Every structure is written in structure tokens, then in C-alpha cells.
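Researcher: Here's a chain I'd like modeled. Treat it as a single chain, no partners, no ligands.
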Amino acid sequence: MASPFISSLPLVASALGRRYGVRVSIGGEKAFSDGRDIFLPSLPLDSNQDLVRLARGYLDHEAAHIRETDFKLAKKAGLTPFELHVWNSIEDFRVEKILGNQYVGCKANFEWLILKFFDHDLEEDSAPDRLTLNWILVKLRSFSVPELEPRVMGLQSLLDDALPGLSAKLSPILGDIQSYCQSTRDSLDFAGKIRRAIDGYLKDLGLDTPAYEALKNFQFEPGTGEKAVTGEASSPSRREAERDSTDESPGQRTDGDSSGDSSERDRGCQAHEDKGPAEAKDGRLGSEENTDNNPSAGSASRLKSLLEADMENLPPSLDTWLEQSLNKVSAENDYDSIMVARAAPLALEELSRDQILESRKVTLLLSSKLQSLLQSLTVKHTLPGCHGRLDTNLVHKLSLNSPKVFRRGGARMGLDAAVHILIDTSGSMGNLTKLASVTAYSLCRSLTAVPGINVAATAFPGGLGNPASYLNGDCWATVTPLLRHGEAMHRRFQLHPSGTTPMAEALWWVLQEMNPLKESRKLVFIVTDGEPDSMSDTRTAVQEAKRAGFELFGLGLGANSVSDLLPGRSEVITDCMDLPGKLFRLLGRAMRYASYGG
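Model: Modeled as a single isolated chain. C-alpha cells:
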């Protein structure tokens, strides 16, 4: 049984994407973001509310990065894996704070997500290197979610036992992040400060790191001409930054025009970096005078190894955890799932001269009938009454003792509807594809002539597009727009049969396209010859469409399976001569529903 939470996800994702200015796709096998678009995997229809909240949280989180993170700047920094991990923790906190302040719902989603992410005992991992990263991460998150404060204290106690003085050295830097981190450049600077503070801590213990001298006075500066470009198509994702970072060392970064102490914040952080635990005598760990104030050689060595660790040996970030959680659910689902088709280009040809002539006959007949139908729905009638304007043609009724010699106006009912025609072009259509082409063209041409109707047409499946982008998903789950809402009418409606029948996926795409339209009524006509690839998935899409206020109608070409999907709202055509009458009957029924709210 389809969960009402998951079945509403495509429309919710579409609305969120428009609000955030990003594009959201649902389908395939993996969750990821390419720095411009957000991709969710196909999710089971029987998902619980927690999974939907994970998906919502992932959308909000990635949208925050797309809107606020300058991935070009991060890639240019050439971060090591450790620095990238720390920067990602800082940047996650920063962008979520910005989006949460703009949208109250996002803030609630982030708080739930953070508590869910930390719903395990981080204290169990007592290795000094992991303690350091976990404490930094939880400390940052506690600024937004105070409920994490007890966990911060627990981690800090363990960290102070393993590496005395390290938390005191890092705490002021983390506090400055809460107050002063305003941009990706700032988060990169703070990641560098944390790295330098740890290097200084190890130097005070006599464990000089190879990069310490190079990092001591380093402050990240972008090259000339580089500006933050949020959401550009060419912006690399964090995954690209991670891959690039493994091949670059800190010494390979481009030192800009350093202004390390140019602000009060930087001077304060530099002062904190210079303070470390008690000096080790003669550069040796655990000297007799400072045994209680120095970590063990093993703890310090683990901390030093942390700076040189690769991505595989670092704990997963929030992004990775979210993606893995969604991917796992998608991989384990062998049954019905939510997937939205993706628009793919397809070379469209104009209809032949014979098809245009055939369509013209249908169009003329439909137009004349639609005109009379439209007139009965929109003309303002005048009726005789006891008040209003005197009608001299009715004065004779006074001799019959009838007071109805006045004219009063009747209610005006206008049309304000968006109509989308969804045409099946699967391989089973065969020669019926020509009939489908003429049908779609005739419908669009007739409806565009009716004032108050916004028409569009889409074929499914569409072009193959780039199969690599579907991550081994069904590359036939595509659509190709023939006529978009608001586009001028044309003749490029020549269709060719190919592929399967991803009706559910195509219908979800249409619903997402129509959802933001301003028309008061939204009608979808499904033109098909047979059953969809998944009848249960399609029924779920139909049910959600009705729940959202859409009106769905079916037009079967040589088969009545569409009647099973849309009983009482479908017609079947077995011959070309049936087309005008059946179309008029279906359109007339739809227009009455649209005008009277049926």
C-alpha cells in the first residue's frame, strides 16, 4: 500500500526545487548532487514518515549547498582529506544556518536530521583521532541544536583525557565560527586555522609535522578574477573536491596575498593557535616534569596520523550518511517505487501533408462543437425577473398579471484551465503512433483556439538522453515535450514508436510541470494503446493527482485498458472516424468538470 507521505514526495520535491531555485529529480539508484541539480533514488511506495523526512532533509541540505557554497573556491584551495572533512563540517553548519533562518520548515527539518544523525554513542569511539573529529562536529552542531550539549561535554571529557589542552586550543576557533563564518571563503579559512592549531599542538609536543612551517602563516586567498558563483552549471560538486584533494598536498596550494592578522577575528585565532599544552622538555613526550599534562605517545601519534589520513579512513560526513541511507533503502526495494521521468531531447519532425489534412477535418469539427459548448458555459444570459432593466418586449405580460417584465443578468461562468496531453509512443503502439500524432495535434490545435485554456503535450518515452546520467536506472523512463505550456502552436508532432510504457513516471513528470501553473483547474489527457509498465505505480500516481486537485481523462487507441485505469473518464477509439465524436464527448465532459468543479 502506498504511503501518503512518499506518494506526495514528487510534488513536494518539485515545490521545494522551485522555492530554492534548484532542479530535483527522483529515480535511478543513487542519491547525489552535481552542484546544480539534486537527485533522489527511486524510493518504495510503502515508506514510513522517517524515510520521507530523510529525503526532505537531504533536499534541504543539498539545496543549501547549491545556493550558498562556492565549490570553485573549495576546489581551488586544494584541501587535504583531513582539511576537507573539517571544512565540510563547518560549511554544513554555515549553509544550514542560512537556509534555516530563511525558511522555518527547513530549520525544523535540519534539527530533526541532526538529532537523527547523532542518534548513536559517539563516545564509544575513544580513539584520539576520532574523538577530535567527533568533538569538532558535535560542538559545531550544538550551536544550532542545544540538545547536543550533553554529548559535547561527554566527548570533551574523553578528549581532554586523551589529548590534554587540545579542546582548549580549538574551542575559541569554533566559537568564532559561530559568530564570524559568513562565506565559503571564511569556512576555508577556519578549516586552515584548525589545521594549524593542531599542527602547533603537535609541535609543542615535539612532533613536528612536515607541513607545519608551510601552514603557520598560511591563509587561503582566491586568485584574481575568481568570484563565488553559486549554482552555476560548471560548479563542481563536493565529490569532485574530495577526489582532487587526495592528489594535492597543502604545500601545493597557491599562497595568496596574505593578510593573516588583518582582522580582530584572525588575530584572536592566531593567539589561540600559539597556545598549546605544556612544553615538552627537550622535545620529548612525557617528560618527568609534565607527565600529567601531556598525552601519551600513542595518542599524539594517532592525532598526527589523522592529518595524513585519506578519505577512506575518515568518518562519513552528514552528506555521505544521508546518501548511504537513501541508497540502501532504494537498493533493498524490489517492488513498487516512486520514480519521476526525466525530460530528454528527441528530434521532432513535422506532420505530413496528409496528416495535416486529416487533422484539419477533425479540428474544424471539434472547433465548431467546442464553440457552442464554450458559449453555453461562458455567455452571460439575461433572464426575465421582477427587477432589473425594463424590457419593452415583456410589457404585454402586465395584462396577464405577471410582474416579470424586467431583465436580470445570469451568472457568468468562464474557463480557466490548463490542459496537458500525455501521449504513449511505446513500441507496442506500432502503426497507431500515426493516429496518436494526429490526435495530439488535433487536440492541441483545437484547444489553443479556446480562450482561457493553456495547452501542452508530452510524449513518453522520450529520447534516450545520456544513459550515464541515470546511474544504471531505466533509461526509457523519459519524456519529450512536444508543446510546452505557453508555447506557440507548431506542426512538429510526428511520433515514432520505441521503448516501453513508463506511464507512472511520465505522469509524475507532468504533475510536477503543471503544479506551479496559475490556472484554477488542471486537466491531463492520457492517450495510450495498452497497460503501463507498472499498473500499481500508475494507480498511485493517479490517486495522488486526484488528491492534489488534478482532473485525469483517458483516450484509448484500439484498447480499453485505459478504462480500467480511469473508469468513467475515458473513451476508446477503434477507427479514425470515431475520433471527432469521441474527442468531443471527452472534451465536453472535461470542460463541464472544469467549469463546475466536478
